[in-house]
Amino acid sequence: MRLSTKSATLLVLALLIVATPFFFPSAYYYRVGALVFVNGIAVTGLVILTGYAGQISLGHAGFAGIGAYASALGPTHLSLPPSLSVLLGAALSALIAFLVGRPILRLKGYYLAVATLGFGILVSMVLANESGITGGPDGVQVAELGLRDLLASLGLKLKAPVFWYAFSGVVLLVGAWLALNLYDSPTGRALRALHGSEVAAKTVGVDVPRVTLQAFVISAVYASVAGSLLALQNRFVTPDIAGYMYSIELVTMAVFGGAGSVFGAIFGAGILTLLPQALTFLAEYEQLMLGLIMVLVMIFMREGLVPSALRLIRGRGA
Amino acid sequence: MPELMQFLLSGATVGAVYALVALGFTIIYNASDIVNFAQGEFVMLGGMITVFAHMAGLPLPLAALLAIVVTAAIGVALNKLAIEPARGAPVVSLIIITIGASIFIRGAAQLVFDKQLHRFPAFSGDDPIAVLGATILPQSLWVIAGALAVFIGLWLFFTKTLTGLAVLATSNNRLAAQLVGINTSWVMTLSFALSAGIGALAGVLVTPITLTRYDVGIALALKGFAAAMLGGMGSPHGALVGGILLGLLEALTAGYISSQYKDAAAFIVILAVLFAMPQGIFGAKRTERV
User: Fold this and answer.
1) Which CDD domains match (chain B) (predicted)?
2) What is the pLDDT of residues B177-207, one digit of tens each?
3) CB distance A302–B92 less than 8 Å?
4) Which CATH number do you get for residue B69?
5) Is B263 on the interface with A (CB under 8 A)?
6) What CATH number is associated with residue A219?
7) Are B68 and B204 in contact (CB under 8 A)?
């Protein structure tokens, strides 16, 4: 029996999520694992935008910031429960992506890169400057999600790190499943067609502006949800989450693992999240390494680690 | 009125720096169609190397010269090690390569130098000169004069010298340039050296006013890009005018609207220009070949 890429990806992901905790020496590892999953969610969104549709965004941390601050400010300013605040953040990100995406996505290449970069920086600037609402550069406390208490009242008591590990893992699986479904859907095919050649896609009747906008909005929602989850598990958020560096890190994770494949991108998120944690004694070299990885991967493995490795293996087998 | 004059003077100073960064972008963009996001790091290197060479006992002019030469060499290395091996890569890959290179240079600067703010003495003292009720630092005049000199030098280079014409030929059509015997790989080396040297010069000129640190490059690269785009990508006088305009706009935003949002001015300009006139003020209209 041959598994489809979709089932194989989901199966491997699920196995990894369930099995790795057996090797965790301490609760700290659950936190790191949850962080991998959160980055994995945001990066899966970038797979849809960059991997499928071939559009670059250097401003997706802006959407993560919107999601994070929605979950932080919804409960305090609008007295919404945190869970609804997450949805509000996702809806707000989708709306902003829709409004901003329409003009921005007419741009190509460098112009698109700089326009999205500018968008992300504007978001982080607003979050840092409007301290009356957002708490300013020092950040703001985030309320408890409440789901853990609900589970406890049902008899399932989980420690916070374990809960967040499991919850982020489930959200990542759902996100990956949706992204993989999209791949084979008519929209997914249209996106991949325009990635190959925009002109060719147009000639066969793809509504290019509409499908790129769809990809942009969907990827913004992924980033927003990731931002919300990050804020909720840290119980604290600062404007850094919307910053330039986080946008760049997300893109690097995606292209490092392989922006064209959901599993590859999540793998890239895993490696680049774990690396700084494992090499804390090399903390000074973090930027140096990140930059070097970006350059080397783009020169030697343009498709990213996982697709290049798979090609190598398949090439040998054939 | 003196208030407005003050904003205009400080805007022109900052604008001259943006113009220098934008000129650096323009040279590389013209030779290779690549937007080098590491352009701001050249400015940082120019300032930092001068600071440390001066601290090590070198006289200021020698330290500045050393900084420009070393930065130009780093520019050439960037081209040879990161850009040339990736020739023909899609734009997304090239964007990631130059951003990666900028992060790498920043990381290296933080290790080789330090994370502190630095400056060195201004070239002609720090006594402000009164102009129409406002004041200007002598160093600001150096910055503005430097930008103008570089612009005129580049203009002469690109219109009057054979080498300059070879660069223009390469930018117009790489293959055709090769066919008439132009060594295009040497043109690329030259462009990166020139662009990095100009960036370093900007760093040398402005450090006594704005100070420098390992991470000043990102913001400058973005502003320089905004300036280049405002003037029209690939046009040297566009870069000059775009830079000065952006500097003025920022100074006026800071003065009359909000200093917190002065950096937002650049990005709002980028977005507005992109939507209203994507080819900028002086840019040539480009059509995409299919």
Assistant:
1) TM_PBP1_LivH_like
2) 889 988 888 999 999 999 999 999 999 999 9
3) no
4) 1.10.3470
5) yes
6) 1.10.3470
7) yes
DSSP A138: G
Q: Is B225 on the interface with A (CB under 8 A)?
A: yes
**For residue B226, what are the CA distances in angstroms to B25, B30, B107, B261, B267?**
11, 16, 24, 16, 7
Q: Is B279 on the interface with A (CB under 8 A)?
A: no
Q: What are phi and psi of B124, to 5 degrees?
A: -125, 45
Contact, A148 vs A158, CB < 8 A? Answer: yes
CB A171 within 8 A of CB A230: no
Q: Do A109 and B85 touch (CB under 8 A)?
A: no
Q: What whole-number distance in Å separates Cα of residue B83 and Cα of residue A121? A: 27
Res. A318 pLDDT band, cuts 50 70 90: very low
Q: Do B110 and A287 touch (CB under 8 A)?
A: yes
Number of domains in chain A: 1
What interface predicted TM-score (ipTM) does this complex get?
Answer: 0.85
* B281: in domain: no
Phi and psi, residue A106, nearest 5°? -70, -20
DSSP bridge partners of B129: B136
The three-point CA angle A46-A261-A12 to 5° equals: 115
Residue B210 is assigned to a structural domain of this protein: yes
| Alpha carbons A269 and A87: distance in angstroms, whole number | 24
For chain B, what's the residue count? 290
User: Quick check: A146 contacting B, CB < 8 Å?
Assistant: no
With beta carbons under 8 A apart, name residues in chain A contacting B270: 114-115, 118
